[in-house]
Amino acid sequence: MSNLDSLTVHTKMSLIHNIVTHVMKFAQAKSTHVLSPALVETYSRLLVYSEIESLGIMIYKVQLLNHLHSLAAVPQTNQTQLHLCVQSTALKLIAGMGSAEVQPQLSRLPSEPKSLLSNESEELNKVLVLTIARAIHVTGSESLSGSWCKEILTTIMQHTPHSWSSFTLQCFPNVLADFFYHHQAPKENKSQLKRSVEEEYKNGKL
């Protein structure tokens, strides 16, 4: 690790670019050999350096989340542990996003598929909202959180309508609090919700 620390930014970026190129060629060749553990470890360690993001390397998180959301959308009958593992991994990826990288990553979404958004999991989308709120508070970027943020929130409410308590809204940045104040999710019918839960439980036992 000390050797990597001593490298210049240009050298680090050149090294990780070469590693990524090598891995892509390796995957396309469909070789039966495996990558060297030292190469994988070096690549993982290089991802720690914040300057690497200028290459757009951290987009792998978005790609992985997109893949996890696709897996979660497939019916997993009698595969409860697998489903929980997928959801847990997605949760850690979202919650683990650094405050400084949230806005650059999410600002790409309006022109791309909503890779970070779950079509079914209200919990994951609420964690994403909390991550956005945390990033805005920490970076002080509320004035920059205009249309891209509202478009993402609108898509979240279309996929998984939900609401927040008044206490939570008071702690949100103004742009988020105003949005959820004007976009309250309709209250669910308890009897209908009970029937839906019972039906889902029956399907899960099949």
Automatic annotation (TrEMBL):
An individual GO BP term: regulation of transcription by RNA polymerase II
Gene Ontology CC: one annotated term: mediator complex
InterPro entries: Mediator_Med23 (IPR021629)
Keywords: Nucleus, Transcription, Transcription regulation
A Pfam family that the UniProt record links to this protein: Med23
Compartments where found: Nucleus
Lineage: superkingdom: Eukaryota
Major localization class: nucleus
Record family assignment: Belongs to the Mediator complex subunit 23 family.
Protein known as: Mediator of RNA polymerase II transcription subunit 23
Organism: Caerostris extrusa
Lineage start: Eukaryota, Metazoa, Ecdysozoa, Arthropoda, Chelicerata
